[in-house]
Amino acid sequence: MNNHVKNQHYVPQFLLKNFSSRGRKFIWAYDKNEKYSIKNQIKERPIKKVASEEYFYDQNENNEIESYEYALQKVEDAATPIIQKIIETKNIIDLSELERKTLSFFITLQDLRTKGQLLRTETSMEILSKQLKEKANIEVPNIDYKKIWFSMFEQSKKFSEILMNKVWMLSESNDSFLISDNPVTLQNTTDTSEVRGTLGLESFGIEIYLPISPSLTISLFCEKLFKNSGYHKNYIPNLTCSPENIENLNSLQIAYSERFIFSHKNEFELVKNQLKNALQQGL
To answer: For position 119, what pLDDT does the model report?
Structure first.
């Protein structure tokens, strides 16, 4: 019990260290919640203290029994050398079946494990509870939002099998990629329907992204889209991103972020402009 991890990261430190500003110990961070102090809005922060919260994965606070912290750490430990190999070789084509499976599981859990995902679970359950009350006069007492969120972790193997079927690619940039506290992002530029959801993992045209360094983003694409065009491999060659591609991927990081956007350098003009535009459109 005395060795129980107190500060639990929802973005693994090894991933953030790939974006470190110096010594693999610090990272530049833009804080969306800081409205008044420019000095505190953009600053170098210790990696060990960002994208984390005390006892975040404990089912019972400060109790390592049934804490998800250690299961998540095992997944991180398995994924770390694979991601490091990808960074060193800039090659995703030669991944073994086991390596793809390990990375699929890691990406799935990374999507589920963030504070942003927990807050979205809470919001969706509050909306459901309100609708049940208004439309059916059914009271839903004492919803344990965190327990519901934890139950999603138990479904992660099933979700990761979906990612295994995607067409994988590495997107490359000249050290221009950002990462956020909610780093797995989704978009669909094929199906732009406004009347139904298009961001499910099995939606036609779905795109899934995870930056792993300032120069590399793992990109997963809808396999059905490729098969319809007669392409049946599970990978495509690396793409050197145009400025428009880079801006799109970074814009997704900004849009999906809960509070922090991170970078290895103090350059956040895109962040400032995107948040300013979003604020103006909301007025």
So the answer is: 94
